[in-house]
Amino acid sequence: MCVNSLSQGLNVDLPKAGLEPRTSRSESRASTTTPRRPLETEQNKKKLYRSSLQKGQVVVVVVEVVVVVVVVVVVVEVKVVVVVVVVIVVVVVVVVVVVVVVVEEVIVVAVVTAIVAVVVVVVVVVVVVVVEVVVVVVVVVAVEHVVVVVHLVVVVVEVVKILTVICFFQ
Known about the structure:
- It contains 6 helices and no strands.
- The longest helix has 63 residues, at 107-169.
- The chain has helices spanning 2-10, 14-17, 25-32, 39-76, 78-102, 107-169.
- The chain crosses the membrane at residues 56-76, 82-103, 110-143, 149-169.
- This is ABC transmembrane type-1 domain-containing protein.
């Protein structure tokens, strides 16, 4: 208000002088602050966060279940996989022999197919064995950690018992 009355008395053009007439305090606050978000938006954000958290927990549980199933399948069913690989090799050899006997012109293709099939089977067997070894190592290490933790808990419980007996009799 002081600037307004001063500019009227001096006859100064405020915008050219780099001055703006002062507005009321509520208007100046409203122009400088960003409008607040409605409460509904904040509640929606909280709901989205909760739902994403729940989805994350579901994903963790699903991953744990898948890991357990894979461990069981790999450890228990390795023999079945080896049998399936042997059956595949036998079928490929029979197909190659039939192709060589029936169509002599396709000998090169049959040999290449047989070689590729054998290589694939060997790779599958190697991968299965490596996965089995890794899973067994992981399971053994996990069991060892659990055993160590259980021993630590037992030791702590025994120490607490001894301390309570000592404190009780003093």
